[in-house]
Design brief:
It contains 5 helices and 7 strands, in the order E-H-E-E-H-H-H-E-E-E-E-H. By secondary structure, it is an alpha+beta fold.
């Protein structure tokens, strides 16, 4: 069944696609413009425990959280909108495999919407290169490039020593 682009996902729709919960899950919305093109929004409330200590009295969203949000938004976009990913079988989970490039050009404050312009490129059967341009308050905040891979959930659990 062909997908009709663009389509939008609200926070609850994204949450239904990926396993992240709690303070690390800050995705608010996602527009799937095509199988490998997404526009997402994330925001961190000031009382988020990840923000509390970074930096006390001068709260800044940690750069690593921008990277994590890029991975979450790209993962949800691929699961919702990439016909190839929909053909993958098994209990697969997308994981961040590497940070290939990250440049932070402007600090991101909590409570501001952070906009992600995301492009993905399949580079292997189970590997996807993800690039993201990040803006906050209409200012360029970061340029990011990561590698995501799909792995069996049981293989990840085994590597973590949980089975």
């Amino acid at each position: 069944m062909p997908l009709d682009y663009p389509f939008s996902l609200a926070r609850r729709d994204i949450e239904a696609l990926i396993p992240h919960r709690g303070d690390i899950f800050v995705c608010q919305s996602l527009t799937v413009n095509g199988p490998h093109s997404f526009a997402g929004v994330a925001s961190w409330p000031r009382d988020n425990t990840l923000i509390q200590g970074h930096f006390p009295g001068l709260p800044v969203v940690p750069g690593v959280m921008l990277i994590e949000s890029l991975a979450q938004l790209a993962g949800a976009g691929l699961l919702a909108g990439d016909p190839y990913v929909k053909t993958l079988t098994g209990d697969l989970i997308g994981v961040l495999a590497s940070v290939r490039r990250c440049v932070f050009t402007h600090p991101v404050r909590p409570e501001n919407n952070v906009e992600f312009d995301i492009t993905c490129r399949q580079i292997g059967l189970l590997a996807v290169q993800v690039t993201g341009k990040v803006q906050s308050q209409r200012l360029d905040a970061a340029q990011l490039e990561i590698l995501m891979v799909y792995t069996q959930r049981q293989q990840l659990a085994s590597a973590l020593g949980t089975i």
